[in-house]
Amino acid sequence: MKLVASAAEMRAVPRSPHFRNGGVSFWYRQAGLPARRPALPGSADYDVCIVGGGYTGLWTAYYLKKARPDLRIAVLEREFAGFGASGRNGGWLSAEFAGSRERYAESHGKGAMIALQRAMMASVDEVIEVAREEGIEADIVKGGMRLVATNPAQKARLLEEVGHLQEWGYWPEDIYLLEHDHEPRLRVDGTVAAAYSPHAARIQPAKLALGLAAAAERLGVEVFEDTAVTEIRPRDGATAPAAVTEHGTVSAEHVIRATEGFTASLNGQRRQWLPMNSSMIVTEPLSPETWKHIGWEGREVLGDAAHAYVYAQRTADDRIAIGGRGVPYRFGSGHDDNGATQPQAIAELWRALARLFPAASEAPIAHAWSGVLGVPRDWCPTVRLDHADGLGWAGGYVGSGVTTSNLAGRTLRDLLLRRETELTRLPWVGRRVRGWEPEPLRWVGTQVIYGLYRTADRREADRVSHTSTLARMAGRIAGR
Ligand SMILES: Cc1cc2nc3c(=O)[nH]c(=O)nc-3n(C[C@H](O)[C@H](O)[C@H](O)COP(=O)(O)OP(=O)(O)OC[C@H]3O[C@@H](n4cnc5c(N)ncnc54)[C@H](O)[C@@H]3O)c2cc1C
Protein backbone atom coordinates (compact mmCIF):
# COMPACT_ATOMS: atom_id res chain seq x y z
CA MET A 1 0.00 0.00 0.00
CA LYS A 2 1.21 3.49 -0.80
CA LEU A 3 1.85 5.50 2.29
CA VAL A 4 0.37 8.68 0.86
CA ALA A 5 -2.68 8.74 -1.39
CA SER A 6 -2.25 11.05 -4.35
CA ALA A 7 -4.25 14.26 -4.40
CA ALA A 8 -6.16 12.92 -7.43
CA GLU A 9 -7.12 9.76 -5.53
CA MET A 10 -8.26 11.79 -2.57
CA ARG A 11 -10.29 14.12 -4.78
CA ALA A 12 -11.91 11.14 -6.45
CA VAL A 13 -13.58 10.03 -3.23
CA PRO A 14 -17.04 11.59 -3.30
CA ARG A 15 -17.85 12.87 0.18
CA SER A 16 -21.18 13.75 1.64
CA PRO A 17 -21.48 17.31 3.01
CA HIS A 18 -22.17 15.47 6.29
CA PHE A 19 -18.99 13.37 6.03
CA ARG A 20 -17.42 12.43 9.34
CA ASN A 21 -14.18 10.69 10.15
CA GLY A 22 -13.98 8.87 13.48
CA GLY A 23 -16.47 9.69 16.22
CA VAL A 24 -16.11 6.03 17.32
CA SER A 25 -18.16 4.68 14.38
CA PHE A 26 -21.03 5.35 12.02
CA TRP A 27 -23.04 2.78 13.99
CA TYR A 28 -23.10 5.18 16.97
CA ARG A 29 -23.96 8.12 14.78
CA GLN A 30 -27.01 6.03 13.87
CA ALA A 31 -27.81 4.63 17.31
CA GLY A 32 -26.62 7.62 19.36
CA LEU A 33 -23.66 7.54 21.75
CA PRO A 34 -24.82 6.19 25.11
CA ALA A 35 -24.92 8.21 28.34
CA ARG A 36 -21.99 7.05 30.47
CA ARG A 37 -22.55 4.83 33.47
CA PRO A 38 -20.82 5.84 36.72
CA ALA A 39 -17.18 4.91 37.28
CA LEU A 40 -16.11 2.45 39.97
CA PRO A 41 -16.81 4.30 43.25
CA GLY A 42 -13.82 2.79 45.10
CA SER A 43 -12.11 -0.46 46.05
CA ALA A 44 -14.52 -3.39 46.27
CA ASP A 45 -14.85 -7.19 46.39
CA TYR A 46 -16.73 -9.22 43.81
CA ASP A 47 -17.01 -12.89 42.91
CA VAL A 48 -16.00 -12.24 39.31
CA CYS A 49 -14.43 -9.13 37.82
CA ILE A 50 -14.46 -8.74 34.03
CA VAL A 51 -12.10 -6.23 32.44
CA GLY A 52 -13.50 -4.85 29.17
CA GLY A 53 -17.11 -4.21 28.20
CA GLY A 54 -17.14 -5.47 24.61
CA TYR A 55 -19.02 -8.54 23.39
CA THR A 56 -16.59 -10.92 25.16
CA GLY A 57 -16.94 -9.29 28.56
CA LEU A 58 -20.66 -8.71 28.22
CA TRP A 59 -21.52 -12.22 26.98
CA THR A 60 -19.46 -13.72 29.80
CA ALA A 61 -21.22 -11.57 32.40
CA TYR A 62 -24.63 -12.23 30.85
CA TYR A 63 -24.38 -16.03 30.76
CA LEU A 64 -22.68 -16.30 34.13
CA LYS A 65 -25.28 -14.19 35.91
CA LYS A 66 -28.05 -16.09 34.16
CA ALA A 67 -26.64 -19.40 35.36
CA ARG A 68 -25.80 -18.17 38.87
CA PRO A 69 -27.90 -15.13 39.84
CA ASP A 70 -26.27 -15.09 43.28
CA LEU A 71 -22.80 -14.26 41.90
CA ARG A 72 -21.65 -10.66 42.25
CA ILE A 73 -20.17 -9.66 38.90
CA ALA A 74 -18.47 -6.37 37.97
CA VAL A 75 -17.55 -5.27 34.46
CA LEU A 76 -14.84 -2.57 34.38
CA GLU A 77 -14.79 -0.59 31.14
CA ARG A 78 -12.27 2.11 30.25
CA GLU A 79 -14.71 4.12 28.09
CA PHE A 80 -18.27 2.85 27.60
CA ALA A 81 -19.60 -0.65 26.98
CA GLY A 82 -19.32 -1.27 23.23
CA PHE A 83 -16.60 1.36 22.67
CA GLY A 84 -14.13 -1.07 21.08
CA ALA A 85 -14.38 -3.32 18.03
CA SER A 86 -17.79 -4.53 19.24
CA GLY A 87 -19.30 -1.17 18.39
CA ARG A 88 -17.36 -0.64 15.16
CA ASN A 89 -17.28 -3.89 13.21
CA GLY A 90 -18.65 -4.89 9.83
CA GLY A 91 -21.70 -6.58 11.31
CA TRP A 92 -20.90 -10.06 10.03
CA LEU A 93 -22.43 -12.41 12.55
CA SER A 94 -20.92 -15.40 10.81
CA ALA A 95 -19.65 -18.90 11.53
CA GLU A 96 -16.15 -17.94 10.38
CA PHE A 97 -13.49 -18.93 12.86
CA ALA A 98 -10.01 -17.45 12.60
CA GLY A 99 -6.95 -19.63 12.95
CA SER A 100 -5.48 -22.71 11.39
CA ARG A 101 -7.75 -25.73 11.71
CA GLU A 102 -4.76 -28.03 11.43
CA ARG A 103 -3.13 -26.34 14.41
CA TYR A 104 -6.12 -27.01 16.69
CA ALA A 105 -6.41 -30.56 15.33
CA GLU A 106 -2.75 -31.20 16.21
CA SER A 107 -3.53 -30.96 19.90
CA HIS A 108 -7.11 -32.28 20.04
CA GLY A 109 -7.72 -34.24 16.84
CA LYS A 110 -9.76 -33.42 13.77
CA GLY A 111 -13.10 -34.32 15.35
CA ALA A 112 -12.63 -31.68 18.02
CA MET A 113 -11.95 -28.99 15.43
CA ILE A 114 -15.06 -30.03 13.52
CA ALA A 115 -17.04 -29.78 16.78
CA LEU A 116 -15.69 -26.24 17.18
CA GLN A 117 -16.84 -25.29 13.69
CA ARG A 118 -20.31 -26.73 14.33
CA ALA A 119 -20.43 -24.82 17.63
CA MET A 120 -19.69 -21.62 15.69
CA MET A 121 -22.67 -22.28 13.41
CA ALA A 122 -24.91 -22.86 16.43
CA SER A 123 -23.58 -19.64 17.99
CA VAL A 124 -24.92 -17.58 15.07
CA ASP A 125 -28.42 -18.82 15.95
CA GLU A 126 -27.76 -18.44 19.67
CA VAL A 127 -26.99 -14.71 19.28
CA ILE A 128 -30.12 -14.21 17.18
CA GLU A 129 -32.20 -16.09 19.75
CA VAL A 130 -30.88 -14.12 22.76
CA ALA A 131 -31.40 -10.85 20.88
CA ARG A 132 -35.02 -11.87 20.28
CA GLU A 133 -35.56 -12.97 23.89
CA GLU A 134 -34.01 -9.81 25.31
CA GLY A 135 -35.74 -7.48 22.87
CA ILE A 136 -32.45 -6.29 21.35
CA GLU A 137 -33.24 -4.58 18.03
CA ALA A 138 -29.97 -4.91 16.14
CA ASP A 139 -31.24 -4.90 12.51
CA ILE A 140 -30.53 -8.63 12.34
CA VAL A 141 -31.24 -10.41 9.06
CA LYS A 142 -29.98 -13.95 8.59
CA GLY A 143 -29.33 -13.77 4.87
CA GLY A 144 -26.16 -15.88 4.82
CA MET A 145 -22.69 -15.02 3.52
CA ARG A 146 -21.53 -14.63 -0.06
CA LEU A 147 -17.88 -14.77 -1.03
CA VAL A 148 -16.85 -13.60 -4.48
CA ALA A 149 -13.74 -14.03 -6.61
CA THR A 150 -12.98 -11.33 -9.16
CA ASN A 151 -9.96 -12.80 -10.93
CA PRO A 152 -8.72 -16.30 -11.79
CA ALA A 153 -6.28 -16.51 -8.86
CA GLN A 154 -9.02 -15.57 -6.41
CA LYS A 155 -11.30 -18.12 -8.06
CA ALA A 156 -8.73 -20.89 -7.59
CA ARG A 157 -8.37 -19.87 -3.95
CA LEU A 158 -12.12 -19.72 -3.38
CA LEU A 159 -12.61 -23.20 -4.83
CA GLU A 160 -9.80 -24.50 -2.65
CA GLU A 161 -11.26 -22.78 0.42
CA VAL A 162 -14.73 -24.26 -0.11
CA GLY A 163 -13.18 -27.73 -0.47
CA HIS A 164 -11.11 -27.15 2.65
CA LEU A 165 -14.08 -26.00 4.72
CA GLN A 166 -16.08 -29.01 3.59
CA GLU A 167 -13.38 -31.18 5.15
CA TRP A 168 -13.49 -29.26 8.41
CA GLY A 169 -17.07 -29.18 9.60
CA TYR A 170 -19.01 -27.49 6.84
CA TRP A 171 -21.24 -30.07 5.16
CA PRO A 172 -22.04 -29.50 1.47
CA GLU A 173 -25.22 -27.60 2.38
CA ASP A 174 -23.24 -25.34 4.76
CA ILE A 175 -21.05 -23.81 2.06
CA TYR A 176 -21.21 -24.29 -1.68
CA LEU A 177 -20.28 -22.70 -4.96
CA LEU A 178 -23.03 -20.76 -6.67
CA GLU A 179 -23.72 -21.96 -10.18
CA HIS A 180 -23.44 -19.31 -12.83
CA ASP A 181 -26.47 -17.27 -11.99
CA HIS A 182 -28.33 -15.75 -14.92
CA GLU A 183 -30.14 -13.34 -12.69
CA PRO A 184 -28.07 -12.97 -9.56
CA ARG A 185 -29.78 -11.40 -6.58
CA LEU A 186 -26.53 -9.61 -5.81
CA ARG A 187 -24.57 -8.15 -8.70
CA VAL A 188 -20.89 -7.75 -7.90
CA ASP A 189 -18.89 -6.47 -10.84
CA GLY A 190 -16.21 -8.74 -12.24
CA THR A 191 -17.38 -11.84 -10.35
CA VAL A 192 -15.85 -14.98 -11.86
CA ALA A 193 -16.95 -17.34 -9.06
CA ALA A 194 -19.04 -17.08 -5.90
CA ALA A 195 -19.73 -19.22 -2.85
CA TYR A 196 -22.56 -19.07 -0.36
CA SER A 197 -23.08 -20.17 3.23
CA PRO A 198 -26.40 -19.82 5.08
CA HIS A 199 -24.61 -19.49 8.45
CA ALA A 200 -24.37 -15.73 8.73
CA ALA A 201 -26.49 -12.72 9.58
CA ARG A 202 -26.17 -8.99 9.03
CA ILE A 203 -26.28 -6.99 12.26
CA GLN A 204 -25.92 -3.38 13.41
CA PRO A 205 -22.98 -3.98 15.79
CA ALA A 206 -23.40 -1.04 18.17
CA LYS A 207 -27.07 -1.83 18.72
CA LEU A 208 -26.09 -5.37 19.72
CA ALA A 209 -23.44 -4.09 22.15
CA LEU A 210 -25.76 -1.52 23.72
CA GLY A 211 -28.60 -4.03 24.01
CA LEU A 212 -26.33 -6.66 25.50
CA ALA A 213 -24.97 -4.27 28.15
CA ALA A 214 -28.53 -3.36 29.13
CA ALA A 215 -29.56 -7.04 29.25
CA ALA A 216 -26.61 -7.94 31.51
CA GLU A 217 -27.46 -5.02 33.76
CA ARG A 218 -31.10 -6.09 34.00
CA LEU A 219 -29.87 -9.41 35.37
CA GLY A 220 -27.89 -7.59 38.05
CA VAL A 221 -24.40 -7.34 36.54
CA GLU A 222 -22.70 -4.09 37.61
CA VAL A 223 -21.09 -2.19 34.74
CA PHE A 224 -18.63 0.58 35.64
CA GLU A 225 -17.54 2.91 32.84
CA ASP A 226 -14.71 5.46 32.57
CA THR A 227 -12.75 2.95 34.65
CA ALA A 228 -9.42 1.99 33.11
CA VAL A 229 -7.68 -1.06 34.52
CA THR A 230 -3.92 -0.57 34.60
CA GLU A 231 -2.91 -3.98 35.86
CA ILE A 232 -4.41 -7.40 36.46
CA ARG A 233 -2.86 -9.28 39.40
CA PRO A 234 -2.95 -13.05 39.89
CA ARG A 235 -3.75 -14.71 43.21
CA ASP A 236 -0.77 -14.38 45.55
CA GLY A 237 -1.03 -16.73 48.53
CA ALA A 238 -4.03 -15.58 50.51
CA THR A 239 -4.38 -12.37 48.44
CA ALA A 240 -7.18 -12.66 45.89
CA PRO A 241 -6.70 -11.84 42.19
CA ALA A 242 -7.36 -8.19 41.45
CA ALA A 243 -7.91 -5.52 38.81
CA VAL A 244 -6.18 -2.25 39.65
CA THR A 245 -7.76 1.05 38.54
CA GLU A 246 -7.20 4.70 39.37
CA HIS A 247 -10.52 4.62 41.25
CA GLY A 248 -9.58 1.67 43.46
CA THR A 249 -8.83 -2.03 43.25
CA VAL A 250 -11.41 -4.74 42.61
CA SER A 251 -10.56 -8.04 44.28
CA ALA A 252 -12.40 -11.12 43.07
CA GLU A 253 -12.24 -14.89 43.07
CA HIS A 254 -11.64 -14.65 39.31
CA VAL A 255 -10.58 -11.81 37.02
CA ILE A 256 -11.32 -12.15 33.32
CA ARG A 257 -9.42 -10.16 30.72
CA ALA A 258 -11.65 -9.26 27.77
CA THR A 259 -9.67 -6.39 26.24
CA GLU A 260 -8.87 -7.85 22.77
CA GLY A 261 -7.06 -5.25 20.60
CA PHE A 262 -6.36 -3.04 23.65
CA THR A 263 -4.60 -5.78 25.61
CA ALA A 264 -1.10 -4.41 24.86
CA SER A 265 -1.87 -1.33 26.97
CA LEU A 266 -2.14 -3.40 30.18
CA ASN A 267 0.97 -3.74 32.32
CA GLY A 268 2.85 -6.90 31.41
CA GLN A 269 0.76 -7.64 28.28
CA ARG A 270 2.60 -5.55 25.68
CA ARG A 271 3.51 -8.46 23.42
CA GLN A 272 0.45 -10.61 24.01
CA TRP A 273 -1.89 -9.76 21.09
CA LEU A 274 -0.93 -7.46 18.24
CA PRO A 275 -3.47 -4.63 17.86
CA MET A 276 -4.42 -4.72 14.19
CA ASN A 277 -6.44 -1.85 12.74
CA SER A 278 -9.44 -2.41 10.53
CA SER A 279 -11.20 0.46 8.79
CA MET A 280 -14.62 1.01 7.29
CA ILE A 281 -16.54 3.50 5.16
CA VAL A 282 -20.27 3.80 4.59
CA THR A 283 -22.15 5.51 1.76
CA GLU A 284 -25.19 7.72 2.07
CA PRO A 285 -28.37 5.69 1.39
CA LEU A 286 -28.43 4.56 -2.25
CA SER A 287 -31.34 5.36 -4.54
CA PRO A 288 -33.96 2.70 -5.36
CA GLU A 289 -32.67 2.75 -8.99
CA THR A 290 -29.15 1.91 -7.83
CA TRP A 291 -30.51 -0.90 -5.68
CA LYS A 292 -32.50 -2.22 -8.61
CA HIS A 293 -29.19 -2.55 -10.42
CA ILE A 294 -27.25 -4.11 -7.53
CA GLY A 295 -29.99 -6.33 -6.10
CA TRP A 296 -28.81 -7.54 -2.66
CA GLU A 297 -32.34 -8.18 -1.52
CA GLY A 298 -31.24 -11.07 0.71
CA ARG A 299 -29.00 -8.79 2.81
CA GLU A 300 -26.30 -11.47 2.88
CA VAL A 301 -22.93 -10.30 4.14
CA LEU A 302 -20.38 -10.06 1.37
CA GLY A 303 -16.65 -10.64 1.18
CA ASP A 304 -14.04 -11.09 -1.55
CA ALA A 305 -11.20 -13.55 -1.90
CA ALA A 306 -8.34 -11.04 -2.11
CA HIS A 307 -5.41 -11.40 0.30
CA ALA A 308 -6.12 -7.91 1.70
CA TYR A 309 -9.81 -8.78 1.55
CA VAL A 310 -12.84 -6.54 2.03
CA TYR A 311 -16.09 -7.25 3.87
CA ALA A 312 -19.39 -5.49 3.26
CA GLN A 313 -23.03 -5.30 4.21
CA ARG A 314 -26.20 -3.60 2.98
CA THR A 315 -27.38 -1.63 6.01
CA ALA A 316 -30.95 -1.49 7.28
CA ASP A 317 -31.26 2.02 5.84
CA ASP A 318 -29.92 0.99 2.41
CA ARG A 319 -26.32 2.10 2.47
CA ILE A 320 -23.27 0.01 1.65
CA ALA A 321 -20.80 -0.35 4.50
CA ILE A 322 -17.44 -1.79 3.42
CA GLY A 323 -14.30 -2.48 5.40
CA GLY A 324 -10.77 -3.76 5.08
CA ARG A 325 -7.39 -3.64 6.76
CA GLY A 326 -6.56 0.03 6.01
CA VAL A 327 -3.25 0.78 7.72
CA PRO A 328 -3.06 -2.48 9.61
CA TYR A 329 -0.47 -1.78 12.27
CA ARG A 330 1.09 1.30 13.78
CA PHE A 331 4.46 1.43 15.47
CA GLY A 332 4.43 0.58 19.19
CA SER A 333 0.91 -0.91 19.05
CA GLY A 334 -0.59 2.56 18.52
CA HIS A 335 -4.12 3.26 17.36
CA ASP A 336 -6.51 6.16 17.22
CA ASP A 337 -9.00 5.69 20.04
CA ASN A 338 -11.73 7.71 18.45
CA GLY A 339 -11.58 5.84 15.15
CA ALA A 340 -10.17 8.58 12.89
CA THR A 341 -9.06 6.92 9.66
CA GLN A 342 -6.12 7.83 7.47
CA PRO A 343 -6.94 9.33 4.05
CA GLN A 344 -5.20 6.55 2.13
CA ALA A 345 -7.30 3.90 3.88
CA ILE A 346 -10.48 5.80 2.95
CA ALA A 347 -9.31 6.12 -0.67
CA GLU A 348 -8.44 2.43 -0.83
CA LEU A 349 -11.81 1.32 0.54
CA TRP A 350 -13.62 3.63 -1.84
CA ARG A 351 -11.68 2.14 -4.78
CA ALA A 352 -12.81 -1.34 -3.66
CA LEU A 353 -16.41 -0.14 -3.40
CA ALA A 354 -16.30 1.43 -6.87
CA ARG A 355 -14.68 -1.68 -8.36
CA LEU A 356 -17.21 -4.11 -6.90
CA PHE A 357 -20.24 -1.83 -7.33
CA PRO A 358 -19.68 0.64 -10.20
CA ALA A 359 -23.34 1.68 -9.84
CA ALA A 360 -22.52 2.99 -6.36
CA SER A 361 -19.27 4.73 -7.30
CA GLU A 362 -20.86 8.18 -7.33
CA ALA A 363 -22.56 7.67 -3.97
CA PRO A 364 -21.20 10.13 -1.41
CA ILE A 365 -19.29 8.62 1.49
CA ALA A 366 -20.96 9.58 4.76
CA HIS A 367 -18.54 8.29 7.37
CA ALA A 368 -15.18 6.57 7.86
CA TRP A 369 -13.91 4.95 11.03
CA SER A 370 -11.47 2.36 12.38
CA GLY A 371 -11.11 -0.04 15.26
CA VAL A 372 -8.63 -2.53 16.63
CA LEU A 373 -8.72 -6.30 16.69
CA GLY A 374 -6.42 -8.65 18.55
CA VAL A 375 -4.00 -10.91 16.70
CA PRO A 376 -2.13 -13.68 18.56
CA ARG A 377 1.34 -14.72 17.33
CA ASP A 378 -0.09 -17.90 15.75
CA TRP A 379 -3.33 -16.17 14.60
CA CYS A 380 -5.41 -18.68 16.62
CA PRO A 381 -8.05 -17.47 19.14
CA THR A 382 -8.04 -18.88 22.67
CA VAL A 383 -10.16 -19.05 25.80
CA ARG A 384 -8.54 -19.92 29.07
CA LEU A 385 -9.16 -19.97 32.81
CA ASP A 386 -6.67 -20.93 35.49
CA HIS A 387 -8.35 -21.61 38.83
CA ALA A 388 -4.99 -21.60 40.60
CA ASP A 389 -4.05 -18.00 39.81
CA GLY A 390 -7.68 -16.93 39.31
CA LEU A 391 -7.11 -15.35 35.90
CA GLY A 392 -8.86 -16.02 32.62
CA TRP A 393 -9.25 -14.50 29.18
CA ALA A 394 -10.77 -14.96 25.77
CA GLY A 395 -9.88 -13.38 22.47
CA GLY A 396 -7.32 -13.11 19.71
CA TYR A 397 -10.21 -13.51 17.28
CA VAL A 398 -8.33 -11.68 14.50
CA GLY A 399 -11.17 -10.38 12.27
CA SER A 400 -13.90 -12.83 13.28
CA GLY A 401 -15.06 -12.04 16.78
CA VAL A 402 -18.73 -11.17 16.57
CA THR A 403 -19.93 -14.77 16.84
CA THR A 404 -16.77 -16.19 18.43
CA SER A 405 -17.15 -13.88 21.44
CA ASN A 406 -20.55 -15.43 22.16
CA LEU A 407 -19.04 -18.91 22.14
CA ALA A 408 -16.25 -17.57 24.37
CA GLY A 409 -18.75 -16.12 26.85
CA ARG A 410 -20.59 -19.41 27.26
CA THR A 411 -17.31 -21.30 27.50
CA LEU A 412 -15.96 -18.98 30.20
CA ARG A 413 -19.23 -19.40 32.10
CA ASP A 414 -18.73 -23.17 32.14
CA LEU A 415 -15.07 -22.86 33.10
CA LEU A 416 -15.85 -20.41 35.91
CA LEU A 417 -18.54 -22.73 37.25
CA ARG A 418 -16.14 -25.69 37.00
CA ARG A 419 -18.47 -27.49 34.66
CA GLU A 420 -17.03 -29.97 32.20
CA THR A 421 -19.11 -29.54 29.08
CA GLU A 422 -18.89 -29.94 25.32
CA LEU A 423 -17.82 -26.30 25.24
CA THR A 424 -14.93 -26.69 27.68
CA ARG A 425 -13.61 -29.61 25.62
CA LEU A 426 -13.32 -27.54 22.41
CA PRO A 427 -9.74 -27.30 21.15
CA TRP A 428 -9.31 -23.55 21.57
CA VAL A 429 -9.74 -23.89 25.36
CA GLY A 430 -6.57 -23.61 27.42
CA ARG A 431 -4.06 -22.98 24.61
CA ARG A 432 -1.01 -20.92 25.34
CA VAL A 433 0.64 -18.91 22.58
CA ARG A 434 4.02 -17.20 22.61
CA GLY A 435 4.17 -13.40 22.47
CA TRP A 436 5.03 -11.16 19.53
CA GLU A 437 8.53 -9.93 18.82
CA PRO A 438 9.57 -6.61 20.38
CA GLU A 439 9.63 -3.39 18.35
CA PRO A 440 10.88 -2.49 15.80
CA LEU A 441 10.63 -6.08 14.54
CA ARG A 442 6.88 -6.16 15.07
CA TRP A 443 6.34 -3.04 12.99
CA VAL A 444 8.75 -4.02 10.21
CA GLY A 445 7.21 -7.52 10.07
CA THR A 446 3.65 -6.30 9.66
CA GLN A 447 4.63 -3.70 7.04
CA VAL A 448 6.35 -6.42 5.02
CA ILE A 449 3.44 -8.87 5.40
CA TYR A 450 0.74 -6.44 4.26
CA GLY A 451 2.99 -4.95 1.57
CA LEU A 452 3.40 -8.46 0.14
CA TYR A 453 -0.35 -9.19 0.37
CA ARG A 454 -1.21 -6.00 -1.51
CA THR A 455 1.40 -6.58 -4.20
CA ALA A 456 0.10 -10.15 -4.56
CA ASP A 457 -3.45 -8.79 -4.99
CA ARG A 458 -2.28 -6.37 -7.69
CA ARG A 459 -0.38 -9.09 -9.56
CA GLU A 460 -3.33 -11.46 -9.38
CA ALA A 461 -5.63 -8.72 -10.72
CA ASP A 462 -3.21 -8.11 -13.62
CA ARG A 463 -1.98 -11.42 -14.84
CA VAL A 464 -1.19 -14.25 -12.45
CA SER A 465 -3.86 -16.96 -12.55
CA HIS A 466 -2.78 -18.72 -9.37
CA THR A 467 -2.14 -17.54 -5.82
CA SER A 468 0.95 -15.35 -5.97
CA THR A 469 4.04 -16.75 -4.29
CA LEU A 470 4.35 -13.37 -2.56
CA ALA A 471 1.19 -14.13 -0.60
CA ARG A 472 2.54 -17.51 0.46
CA MET A 473 5.72 -15.79 1.58
CA ALA A 474 3.68 -13.26 3.60
CA GLY A 475 1.77 -16.11 5.25
CA ARG A 476 5.01 -17.77 6.28
CA ILE A 477 6.47 -14.55 7.73
CA ALA A 478 3.21 -13.92 9.61
CA GLY A 479 3.34 -17.40 11.12
CA ARG A 480 -0.28 -18.11 10.09
C1 LIG B 1 -13.51 -2.32 11.79
C2 LIG B 1 -13.72 -3.73 12.30
C3 LIG B 1 -14.55 -4.60 11.59
C4 LIG B 1 -14.79 -5.89 12.06
N1 LIG B 1 -15.70 -6.66 11.42
C5 LIG B 1 -16.05 -7.85 11.94
C6 LIG B 1 -17.12 -8.60 11.38
O1 LIG B 1 -17.82 -8.13 10.47
N2 LIG B 1 -17.38 -9.83 11.91
C7 LIG B 1 -16.65 -10.34 12.94
O2 LIG B 1 -16.91 -11.47 13.35
N3 LIG B 1 -15.68 -9.63 13.53
C8 LIG B 1 -15.38 -8.39 13.08
N4 LIG B 1 -14.45 -7.64 13.71
C9 LIG B 1 -13.85 -8.15 14.95
C10 LIG B 1 -14.84 -8.05 16.12
O3 LIG B 1 -15.49 -6.80 16.11
C11 LIG B 1 -14.10 -8.24 17.43
O4 LIG B 1 -13.38 -9.46 17.38
C12 LIG B 1 -15.00 -8.30 18.66
O5 LIG B 1 -15.86 -7.21 18.69
C13 LIG B 1 -14.14 -8.37 19.90
O6 LIG B 1 -14.93 -8.16 21.03
P1 LIG B 1 -14.20 -7.98 22.44
O7 LIG B 1 -15.25 -7.73 23.43
O8 LIG B 1 -13.29 -9.13 22.66
O9 LIG B 1 -13.27 -6.70 22.23
P2 LIG B 1 -13.70 -5.15 22.16
O10 LIG B 1 -15.02 -4.96 21.55
O11 LIG B 1 -12.56 -4.43 21.54
O12 LIG B 1 -13.87 -4.75 23.66
C14 LIG B 1 -12.79 -4.55 24.52
C15 LIG B 1 -13.23 -3.51 25.53
O13 LIG B 1 -12.26 -3.40 26.55
C16 LIG B 1 -12.15 -2.05 26.92
N5 LIG B 1 -10.82 -1.89 27.50
C17 LIG B 1 -9.64 -1.94 26.88
N6 LIG B 1 -8.63 -1.78 27.73
C18 LIG B 1 -9.19 -1.62 28.95
C19 LIG B 1 -8.66 -1.40 30.24
N7 LIG B 1 -7.36 -1.30 30.44
N8 LIG B 1 -9.52 -1.28 31.28
C20 LIG B 1 -10.86 -1.39 31.09
N9 LIG B 1 -11.41 -1.58 29.88
C21 LIG B 1 -10.59 -1.70 28.82
C22 LIG B 1 -12.31 -1.30 25.61
O14 LIG B 1 -12.67 0.05 25.81
C23 LIG B 1 -13.38 -2.12 24.93
O15 LIG B 1 -14.68 -1.64 25.17
C24 LIG B 1 -14.16 -6.34 13.25
C25 LIG B 1 -13.31 -5.49 13.96
C26 LIG B 1 -13.10 -4.20 13.50
C27 LIG B 1 -12.20 -3.27 14.28
From TrEMBL:
Q: Which InterPro entries match?
A: FAD-dep_OxRdtase (IPR006076), FAD/NAD-bd_sf (IPR036188)
| GO CC field | cytoplasm
Q: Which domain of life is it from?
A: Bacteria
Which parts of the sequence belong to the FAD dependent oxidoreductase domain? Answer: 47-415
Known Pfam families for this protein?
Answer: DAO
Q: What is this protein called?
A: Glycine/D-amino acid oxidase-like deaminating enzyme
Q: From which organism does this entry originate?
A: Spinactinospora alkalitolerans
